[in-house]
Amino acid sequence: MQVANATTLLRVHRRGHHAGASGASTTDQGRQGPDRGDEPDACVEQASAHRCPLEVVVVELPLGRLDHGEEVTDTQRATEGENEVRQQVFAEEHVDSMPGPQAPSLLRETLAMGFHHVALATRDAAATHAFYTEVMGFDLVKVHVGPTPNPGDGFSKHFFYATNTDVDDDTAGDRGAAKDLIAFWEIKCDDIGDNYEVNINKAAGLPGWVNHIAFDAPTREALDRHRVRWQQHGHRVLEVDHGFCTSIYLEDPSGNMVEFCLTTRDFTDDERAAATQLLVDPQPGFEADPTMIVHEALTST
Question: 276: which residues sit within 8 A by CB, 6+ positions away?
Fold first, then answer.
């Protein structure tokens, strides 16, 4: 079916589905941790694999165009007046946090955007939960359970951890807030199976140091607390001074590298100016070797 100057959207509804009890809990009593010999308790209760039929609705929307040629639907495109109202409301809500009488004009410069969450698959939810709560120090804040799109009676659990749980990590006063999250998938589906690769570097055929996830350590004290906690869980920790930041590294139960990183200075004007040239340089020169320290484990595994 073709409709002139229109776009087709697919809206998927889960017919007959309604929210039930959370179905997610943690069990901390008696857990010995991932780096001790005992098996940790299950991190999340098994949810019933409730599947609901899907209803697909096809919606035809008229198209408009932006000045630079991108197509947008008329229902999505704001009028000039609507944009002015939105900008005014935003400026009024945030004016107290912006400096000077030109605060509304500084919106673009003062807004910061980071990741809401990064999501990875895991084949061992219990080990992943123990590592990210006990070793990393994060808090489990949400488990979303739903059906998989594949045929069968499978389900998926999407579980989220707040990473800003240390007082020094929470400079904005958003401790445990619904942002700065890391999430994982536990998938139970016959079509997908249970032998999928969860090590992102191994799947790409790369060394373990290439793809990794770095979490911010805003102070030296915070970085040291994370390092000591790792050592207390029996890990040998590599600390690297890169010149502009200092990092510590560890692998999670899936073999993915995680990092806490402390920024130690601002980037210089010379660094910023040279960045684009270095990016395209086919034979760039090397920077000075970083300083490395190995911190031995404080307990045996």
Answer: none
Contacts of 115-119 with C-beta under 8 Å, sequence gap 24+, read 115/180, 116/179, 116/181, 117/160, 117/179, 117/181, 117/182, 117/183, 118/181, 118/182, 118/183, 118/213, 119/158, 119/182, 119/183, 119/184, 119/185
Q: Is there a contact between 141 and 22 (Cβ–Cβ < 8 Å)?
A: no
The domains of the chain are located at 18-51+114-295
SS3 for 202-252, per residue?
HHHCCCCCCCEEEEECCCHHHHHHHHHHHHHCCCCEEEEECCCEEEEEEEC
d(CA 262, CA 239): 11
Structure tokens at 67: 């000045």
Between CA 189 and CA 155 the distance in angstroms is 6
- 212 in Cβ contact with 258 (< 8 Å): yes
pLDDT per residue as tens digits for the range 1-21: 433 333 333 433 333 443 333
- Full-model pTM: 0.62
Q: What is the CATH number of domain 18-51+114-295?
A: 3.10.180.10
67-114 pLDDT tens trace:
444 444 444 444 555 555 555 544 455 445 444 444 444 444 445 667
How far apart are the C-alpha atoms of 161 and 132, rounded to whole Å?
Answer: 8
The token pair at 294 is 């190995």
